[in-house]
Amino acid sequence: MTDRRRFLTGFGAIAGAVSAASVSKVAMAALPEPVIQTKPDTAAPLIPNTGRPYNPVVTLNGWTAPWRMNNGVKEFHLVAEPVVREMTPGFKAHLWGYNGQSPGPTLEVVEGDRVRIFVTNKLPEHTSIHWHGQRLPNGMDGVSGLTQPSIPSGKTFVYEFVARRPGTFMYHPHADEMVQMAMGMMGFWITHPKGKHPLIDEVDRDFVFLLNAYDIDPGAFTPKIMTMTDFNIWTFNSRVFPGISSMNVKHGDKVRIRFGNLSMTNHPIHLHGHEFLITGTDGGPTPKSTRWHEVTTDIGVGQMRQIEFLADEEGDWAFHCHKSHHTMGAMGHDVPTMIGVDHRGVAKKIAGLVPDYMVMGERGMADMGEMEMPIPYNTQKMMAGEGPFGGLEMGGMFTTVKVRREQKRGDYSDPGWFKHPSGTVAYEFTGQLPEPARASAPAGQSAPTTAARTPAAKDVEVRVRKPASGHSGH
Length: 474
Ligand SMILES: [Cu+2]
Description:
CATH architecture of the largest domain: Sandwich
CATH topology of the largest domain: Immunoglobulin-like
Bound molecules: copper (II) ion
Strand content: 25-35%
Shape: globular
Radius of gyration: 28 Å
Largest sheet: 8 strands, mixed
């Protein structure tokens, strides 16, 4: 028995991943050069110049990995490694990702393509990659311990399978998952249909991104990996508003936006000004009979959604998670509600002891957007973004869809702020305000309360017994 055969027999269950590496020795000898991208900008769509043609997607603040064709096989090279990700100007995080970024590059293939992915592990611990949603041989599914041994630090493994199902997919580790996903390891995968598909329409613009979340203390660079639910940085593709690119489209374009949720909670994603259809999930295109119009769709943990709409209303339309604390930056969650509390006297007294003391929130939190409060170095502002009419008071999962008549086909550049036709912007009323008529009848209720029928129920007077002189007894 040769060494190789002994190896395969000894690890029967893992033969998938290992034998693929063995059969493609020639390809291994000439590993495709990994392409590294370190800028957080939104890259132009990668027009395929080899392999079968397709309409490329645009990854928000991300990019598509180039490939090479090797005897009809599409070859990619992913490098799992520590990366520095600028989440928004002024705030960088030390994450783990692929090829210089978190998330890693988007992989775009065509239905029926044979795909070979080399994965080099430059992390300090082992890893693996699971190809979420794909039909593939079990041994290529990337579950450490179950379908393959983990990829040890410093080693390269090969995954190889045919992209059988067209649609919207993602990839992420299935080894020390909680840590590796909390550190930002994930990426998008698109399998384009090989021809006209009855349930997949051609669109003019196709945007993709992943939803993720981090727990990074103000002033720190590295996520707290043991956090289970209480994250404080809410991101589209590891970027926060105002660092997230706008989705710039031409008036009349048919637009598709695809997103996957690899955070640890659900996100109701909301588009202003238009209604969309959910045309697909990670399970594939949805049957037409299941499609209805929405303006918000909730996306659960580990799910993907693709939405489609006709961009036929000009303007700068907000697109965001509807959980309002997910559109805010890092903040202390322990701040008590101060709305309506007049604490002027208290503030004065404390200021005597703590010179820089500042009271927050007695008129709401909006002041936080403008306030130049000193924050620790490398900290996301809680509320940020300057719009044409003032502060947007946002952070986290928020961006815009900019619909313009003058946007050229294939031009993804930012057209700037919308110029509103005169008379179409909300304006101040400057006339006399009449005293509002207030109803004085008791509020309606479905049934009388028990107390109302109980004769004994009178106003209860609370008596406080004060201690007598002296301090005995407490
Ligand atoms: Cu959310």
